[in-house]
Write a structure and sequence with these properties.
Length: 90
């Protein structure tokens, strides 16, 4: 969604074993803001990367993680939720 949008550098990774790209310590170290869809994702990050999250802001968007990748309804919901924190591309 944000790929190539001026002013942002974005990476996407998941917390689940079946994620296309699983979050790593490198992702956590690189990030200024970390958005998660559900509270359980934030807890998984805290359990796995504890000290690496010091000084990082984790924001839960409270979106059920039951959408297909890049599903239109998910994109609309993400734009709505993310707009509270960052400028959303058209």
């Amino acid at each position: 969604m944000y790929a190539g949008f001026p002013g942002y550098e974005v990476k996407s990774a998941g917390t689940e074993a079946g994620a296309r790209i699983r979050v790593t310590a490198g992702h956590v170290g690189w990030a200024d803001l970390i958005f998660v869809m559900e509270k359980k994702h934030a807890q998984k990050l805290r359990n796995k990367f504890g000290e690496g999250l010091v000084g990082k802001r984790i924001i839960c968007l409270h979106i059920p993680d039951d959408y297909d990748y890049m599903e239109a309804d998910l994109i609309d919901l993400l734009k709505t939720k993310l707009s509270e924190y960052v400028e959303v591309p058209e």
